[in-house]
Amino acid sequence: MLSKKLGLDFFIGIPKEKISNIAFLYEDKIEQKTSSEFNAFNNPEHEINFYNKKDWQTAEVPSMNGHGNARSIAKIYDIFVNDLVLKKNILLSKTSIKKCLTESASRIDGSLKLPIRWSDVGLILRGGWLFGKNKESFGHNGWGGSLGFADPVLRIGISYTTNKINPTMKSDQRIISLLKKFYEIF
Predict the structure, then answer these.
(1) Domain extent listing, the chain
(2) How distant, in Å, are the alpha carbons of 9, 59, 74, 114, 143 from that of 63?
(3) 175 or 5: whose pLDDT is higher?
């Protein structure tokens, strides 16, 4: 409903008529495989071809099955951050935005083994260079190197999507390099 209202190509469980828009995923074989210590991501063990099947692509699994292009993901974060700054209430009310940005935990994440500041609704607050240079930024990374975030200082949404899946749990250097260059020239 939201995708249609805002003209976005983003779905949790993609409609069958849009499956041809999904890029084929493949692993970046250069990167070292995810360590078995990341049990939440390896149980069951990742098998890349599972995620290329229509049954998975059409399943509605909000925690892991968002399909969208970078433009649409960036637009969602752009609207979100401008709701925050300009109080437009296109996506969320002021109360909902406050809840989305309220820190609920700041600790070493048990699955990722990284320090993460989580909000009440599962957004990552200030993810280091993963979300650019401004400490007010918030968003979420996706599996394999994709991510989306909002930068309230610049009042923009930013996204990076890839079909070349980074199988490690460390920050993807492709997006870090792009973000550093973006902030250098912006």
Answers:
(1) 2-10+24-185
(2) 18, 11, 18, 19, 11
(3) 175
Count of all residues that appear for the chain in the document: 186
Q: What is the mean pLDDT of residues 55-84?
A: 91
Q: What is the 3-state secondary structure (H, E, C) of 89-154?
A: CCCCCHHHHHHHCCEEEEEECCCCCCEEEEECCCCEECCHHHHCCCCCCEEEECHHHCEEEEECCC
Q: Report how far residue 57's alpha carbon sits from residue 182's, in angstroms, rounded to the nearest whole number.
A: 32
Architecture in CATH for domain 2-10+24-185? 3-Layer(aba) Sandwich (3.40)
Residue reference for tokens 């002021």: 94
Q: Can you read off the two tokens belonging to residue 34?
A: 């995810």
Residue with tokens 């041809």: 20
Tell me the whole-structure pTM to 2 decimals.
Answer: 0.86
pLDDT score for 37: 52
Cα end-to-end span (Å), the chain:
33
Q: Which two tokens stand for residue 131?
A: 């979300």
Type and span of the H or E element at 45: none
Whether pLDDT at 44 is above 70: no
